Amino acid sequence: MIESEDVRITRAGYDEYAELYARMVEGLMDDMLFDRMMLDAFAEAVRENGTGPVLEVGCGQGRVAAYLTAAGLRVSGIDLSPEMIRLARATYPEISFEIGSMEQLPLEDAALTGLVSWYSLIHTPPQRVPAVLTEFARVLRPGGHVIFGFQAADEPTGVTEYAHKVAPSFRWAPDTFAEVLAANGFRATAKLSREARPDERTPQATVLAVRV
Question: Domain of life of the organism in this record (predicted)?
Answer without folding.
Answer: Bacteria
